[in-house]
Automatic annotation (TrEMBL):
InterPro entries to which the protein is assigned, alphabetical: START-like_dom_sf
Descriptive protein name: SRPBCC family protein
Organism: Rothia terrae
Domain of life, source organism: Bacteria
Length: 129
């Protein structure tokens, strides 16, 4: 298994990035690889339509450390754990997402890394407006 850390400097405070990313209803605005339509809530559980089917998104508990780790649970019950952090940076903040090569070819892994980088770029553009 290979992991790749994808990061992006965002010219705003870590708290602003954290609050925006942690809000599941913002996912369709920046996370095209995860949410392609409106996020819905059902009894405290959040669901999105992903490119690969309907998923549940479950973030770790709210925290003051910038941890945005989240699980993506597919319709068949498979859970994918996604490490994600926002940390202070001299230019504002840095968001870091770890992509793991699980059951995919090198080409698929490279495409996944490019998609995450594009999502983080979109996030930065939204928050730097």
């Amino acid at each position: 298994m290979v992991s790749q850390h994808i990061s992006r400097i965002i010219g705003t405070s870590p708290q602003k990035v954290y609050d925006y990313v942690r809000n599941p209803f913002t996912l369709p605005l920046w996370a095209a690889g995860l949410a392609t339509s409106t996020v819905t809530e059902d009894n405290g559980r959040y669901f999105a339509q992903a490119p690969f089917g309907r998923v549940q998104v479950r973030f770790v508990q709210t925290n003051s450390s910038g941890v945005l780790d989240h699980g993506v649970i597919t319709e068949n019950g498979a859970t994918f754990y996604n490490p994600m952090r926002v940390i202070p940076h001299p230019q504002g903040s840095e968001i870091i997402f770890t992509v793991r090569q699980l059951e995919m070819s090198d080409e698929q892994f490279a495409a996944d890394c490019r998609a995450v980088a594009a999502d983080l770029e979109t996030l930065a553009q939204l928050l730097e407006r």
